[in-house]
Every structure is written in structure tokens, then in C-alpha cells.
Amino acid sequence: MDETVAEYIRRTVLKIPRDEIKTMLQKWGLLSETQLQTINFRQIKENISQDVVQLCEENSADIKQAAVLDIIYNHVYPNKRVWSVYQMKKTGEETEFFDLTDFKKKFKRRLRSALKNVTINFREYEDNAIWIRIAWGTPYTKPNQYKPSYVVYHSQTPYVFISASVLKSNLPLLCQALVLASNYHDIREMELRSHSLNSLKDIVFKRYSQNFQTHYPRPLQERNVAPESADLRIIQENKTEKERIERVNREVFGDGPQPKLEFAQYKLETMFKSDPQMDVLDKKEPFRCLVKFSSPHLLESLKSLAPAGMADAPISPLLTCIPQKARNYFKIRERKHFFPGSFVSP
Amino acid sequence: ENADPQRTAFLLRKQWTLYSVTPLYRFSNAHLRDYARLLSSFIAAEKQKGLAVEVGVELDIKVSVSSLPYLKGSDQDQAAILVQLSSRSPASPKNSEEKLIWSGWFCCVSGDDLSKNVPEDFTCLPLFLVNGAECYTSIVGSWFQKTFDCSFRRLAISPLILSWMAAMWTGCKVDKTASAMELVFSVPCLPQPLDISYAIHPEDAKALWDTVQKTPGEIIQEEVDVFMDCLYSHFHRHFRIHLSATKLVKVSTAIASAHCDGIIKFLQSQYLTGVLMLLTELAISQIE
């Protein structure tokens, strides 16, 4: 077995949390149950990985097989990477039958015709998700297995999720190969990025509880509200206002759990407007700003701002439109009516 | 007085943690070499006790204590004192280069308010800036405390002061293409914490400040408030979020950046003394 393959396997095993190693090796299937039973999974990871390498040596594992273990790891821990979303376009309306074999063949052919040195692996999962791992080389060097790109393609949809890795120069080629292989005509990058692959899927596949776009007063729903406190001497101030905030907040954010995003960025090119009495800046040019919101769970965080008294209710549509518009990068310009077209003015 | 940019270059673009220091008893500029020697022995002794330094690293530590006479505001100010720790691994050859591993400097820029009220035997150097590992900071700090009967306290920077810095530094003229004026707000007490970075194009920020500031060279609280309110209301117009209800934790401009935990970065030597003057004032108010 090639030394580089051995080292790659060793390092891949080291990434896996110790308690998960056995399961992942079983999923991998390269080592037999008998072989796996010879490994003591209680020892320190360094030793476990050495044992694994040795067994792989016995099985003469090659780089393609080693790459499968990497796919499995990334499938279980996709959130370690940042994923961008791409949408493919067809000119016709026909839904063609998706031929997986044909897809793989065309994809590999396109990449290999441009780059001799490239390692390509496919793995299919439930819900029609095809995972593709590509390790890139150059005409003179072998593929760098430590900086692969990952593609997740749901064949029944026009969406592709790409975790490009540092080697961004290969992105155009990758996009081309995808379009060709899937019989689409074009591909564009959406302004949507996150660590949470599942949340990105929730957003583009509309799998989250959507909010309401019209504003009309709704009767307060009966909810199972426990009394604030057993002591009737304690009265909640502003009860009506608090309830209004809760209701409006639920309307704009929806009832269910929010998709998980870590940031949203807004490039503002709008005019600075102030109280004329203040006698401040009155330029005819935009007041250029860049605003970035970050949080471990951005949408939940924004949802809690109005109830916490830090934002108005409803909070700005610029924030609540993130899941529907499927984007978290925005450029906001001044318009005749302040907010971009699609919002109903209150 | 602007310090020579070449001599102050080493202070720029480094992260300095701030402390206020009470006056030093019987400190003398004439004995800097002795102090270096004594501090060196102290560090060696601490190492023996197993206290000092980074785990698993065997280092020969060399101490230097020097004066930076050009870092002061007025003649009454004490010259700044720089303490540096360098290391050389005992394994490497004698003439090999020493690596600077820790720097700390005491200074006083326009600290008349403090020095005029203090008895003869005391030296006023109320501001202490540190770059390097905490373990060394703690040893050097202990030695100074023991030797000069002074005490160190971390210098926090309140949102109020950060706003001042934002306004002041936005107004400064910068030759080259300036970096954005960035304000960072934190909302920690939510179920999911939120950070907001609000960066304004430096020309636009300066244009706004220039219309707010009425007297050049002079800034009053009201002007700072108006400036910040303008920025908050522009933000509110778009996002309907009240930035004033969040915590301003960091300000970054082309001149310098400051964090509420008492961390500063100087970016322009031209304005170094100006920033130090403000920090000295902060340190003094923390001491008093």
C-alpha cells in the first residue's frame, strides 16, 4: 500500500471522535468484522489509527477506497465545512429521467478531459442525495487529498451544495461538469452560505414553517399559557403589548424552528436621512455601510430580539425574508419606496 | 509632539492589553540595568519553582528594560519605560537570534492631573500596555508590585468611551486609503447570542462627523451623542433594531482599534500620542 494512502487513512481516522470510529469503519466496509474485532477501540486514537492502517495494508487499500472513508466522515459531520448553494437552470420544462450512471460518466469525463490528476468518488444516500468528492491535482502533481471539494446534488432538484475548499480556481470547471452531467444549461451561485448543510436544504427545499407575508390582524390564538406566577399580586405590565409582540413575531418568523444559519451580510448603499432639525449630513450620495450579523443560530437570535425589547415588532423584512429569498448576502439600494419590491407595505 | 514614526513602528499593529498602574515608589531611570538584572533573577527563580513559563518549553529568558524618552505628552511626563523578554532555546547556538516573546511598557502622556498630586518619591506611569503570554505578564507584574509597591488593574473601556473614540478617530485626517469605521455590538443575553458588525465607509463616516462637529479641535459629549444617534437611526431605518439597547464592544478605525475588555491596537504612528493621551486619562481615572 502506498505510503501516502497509509498516511491519509491514518489522518482521517484521527479526525473521527473515538466513540464513532468503529461505526464509521463498519459503514466503510473495507475491513471485515473479523479484522475490526482485532482492534482495541479503547486505546488512544493514535494507536487505533495505527492499527487501522496496518489492517488496510493487509487489504491493499488504494486512494479511492481511502477517499470513501473521508466521504463518510463528512456526511456525518457536514457542519465542519462551509457550504454554498448553487442553482442550475434548464431552458425546457421537461423533467427528464435521471440516469445516475450517465451522470457519473459525463461528470468524470468532463473533469478528466481538463485535468489528468483528479480523484473522483461518488456515494449515494437516502432522499436522492449524491455526494461527490473531488481531490484536485495539476498536470504535474498528484491530487491533494487534504483539500478536496465536496458536492451534494439532489437529483430531483436543480440545487447543488458545494463546499469548495481552498482551491477556488477549480470551481468553474466543477460547475461546468455538473451542468453537463445533469443535462442543465446553466448554473449560478446563490447568495446563500452556511455551515449547516441541513439548514440550507431546509431553506431551498422549503422544509421549514413559513411565515405569512400579508399583514392583517389575526385573533389571538388560544395557547397553553401557564400563568406567569402563582402569586396574583404580581401583575404583568404591558400585557397587551407583550402579546402583540409575540403574535407579530410568530407571524413574520413562522411557528416552527428556524433553519440554522450563522451569519447574514448586508451591503447598504442607501441614502442617509436624518431629522432636518439635526442639521447633519445631507449628501446626495449613498451612505455606504456593510452590516454583518453573526450568531450560532442567527434566525432564532433575531426572532428573540423583539420580545427582548431590542427591536420593533415586526422586525425588518430585510431580516425575515432570509429563508424565503434563500439568501444571506444582500445588497440594498435606495428605491422610490423604501423596501425592495416584494414586501407588502403595512 | 509626534514621535518619530520609525522608532514607534514596533508599537503599531500589535494587540496591547491595558492596565492602570498606581505610582511607583522609588523608581529611578538611572537604575534600569539593575532592574533588568533583578527581574531576570526573579524569573529564573519562578521557573525553578515550576511556576513560570509555558509548559514543556525550556527557554533561556533575557530581560531588557529601557527608556523611551520620546513617548510623552508634556515635559512633566515621565519617559515611557519598556520591558522586553526575549528567549533563546538552549539547544540553539550562542549567536543565534533571540526571539522577542513578551513586551510591556509603562507610559504617561499628559498625566499632569496625577503627577502634580503625588509626593516626590513616586513616579507616575499610570498606563501599562502588554503584548505576550499571560504567564509572563503575571510574573513581571508581581515583580513590579513587590519592588515598587504599586498595583495593576485591568483597564476596561466603557461603551461611552468607545463612542468617544469612534467620533474622535473618525474625524482624523488619514493620508492613505483609510479602512472602514467599524462598530461591533454584542447581545449576549439572548437564548442565542448575537454579534452585529456595522462598518461605514471612512469617507462617509467622516463626512457625517464633520457636519456634527461644530468647533474644530474640540469635541463635546453632545456632538458624540448626535453622531452615534445618527448611526443608530440609520441602522434602525433598515433593520428596526435598537442598537442603543445593545452593548458596544469594539471600535475600529484607520487610526486605532479598541475593545471593551481593554485591548488596543495602534495603526498610525501620527496619532499614537493622541491615543495614548486618552488612555492615560482613562488609567488615571481608574486609579483615583
Automatic annotation (TrEMBL), chain A:
- Provide this UniProt record's keywords sorted from A to Z: Centromere, Chromosome, Nucleus
Identify the stretch annotated as signal peptide in this record. Answer: none
Q: Which Pfam families match?
A: CENP-N
Can you say where in the cell this protein is located?
Chromosome, Centromere; Nucleus
One Gene Ontology biological process: CENP-A containing chromatin assembly
| GO CC annotations, alphabetized | chromosome, centromeric region; nucleoplasm
Which PANTHER family is this protein grouped with? CENTROMERE PROTEIN N (PTHR46790)
Into which family does the record put it?
Answer: Belongs to the CENP-N/CHL4 family.
Listed name of the protein: CENPN protein
Native species: Haliaeetus albicilla (White-tailed sea-eagle)
Q: Which gene encodes it?
A: Cenpn
TrEMBL record, chain B:
Where it sits in the cell: the answer is: Chromosome, Centromere; Nucleus
InterPro entries named in the record: CENP-L (IPR025204)
* Keyword RNA-binding carried by entry: no
Signal peptide start and end residues: none
Superkingdom to which the source organism belongs: Eukaryota
**Main localization (coarse):** nucleus
Q: Which UniProt keywords apply?
A: Centromere, Chromosome, Nucleus
Q: Look up the record and report any one GO term of the cellular component aspect.
A: nucleus
Q: Which Pfam families match?
A: CENP-L (PF13092)
The similarity annotation says: Belongs to the CENP-L/IML3 family.
Mind telling me which PANTHER family this protein's record contains? CENTROMERE PROTEIN L (PTHR31740:SF2)
Give the protein's recorded name: Centromere protein L
- What's the source species for this entry? Haliaeetus albicilla
